[in-house]
Amino acid sequence: MVLKETVIKSVTSRSAVRLNSGFTLMELLVSMTIVGFLALAILFGFRIGINAWAKGETGLERIRTTQATFDLLNRQLGSMVDYISQQNLKDSTVKVLIFQGAESGMRFVTTFSSQSRGAGGLQLVEYFVSSSKQGDHSKKALVLNETILPDDATIARSVIDDISLGNNNFPVALFREFSLRANSRYLLEDLESIQFRYIRPELAKGGGEPGVSSAPALARELLPQGIGIRLRWSEPGLLGTRDLSITIPVHVNAVQ
Fold this sequence. Notes:
This protein is an alpha+beta fold and 256 residues long.
């Protein structure tokens, strides 16, 4: 009986020593390692969530910006006018249509102002391709220049390089290259390429002699019926697409 009580006391004493001794070094190291892995997993999960959220916001911003840009293009092309400028050619006065359509951009006259978001008199606008605002030449941007239509003398100095005779001896302007200005607006950025194309009608046979059109009629015929724009972004968007093509109809209004 005495021996049994002695054994019980010995076991109890050893258990009390173990309880009072705390964690061993190995147990502490294992616990710290597990906690470190958990913290690392939480950090990675948080960073993945933040990156996904930022990518989603960037994609939504791209969609909103693209929609606003095409809305502006639609309004300005829908308010295009066949403006004829009086210019000098070989000591004589000729009528020149102010419209330029190139793969890298376009220049035309419209009654819709992007500043007032409404009719604001005649505006000379330019949409063209430029390097990104950050100066990265591998990335392109769609840029807008807009100004109140200047007088014919200013147009001759700032917009037109030369004048030649085209179809039916109708004077055609050779315009200057598009260039950035202090008030240029970057509409779309982070693009790999931007291309413009023009849907043009066949030159109509005017009344009277076959193949002959009056200057005002031919001026309108030289304007496109629609503008196609193809965009290719450097990175895929929300839907995993990089390309977008759109065709905008042109409604030509007579100059009042």
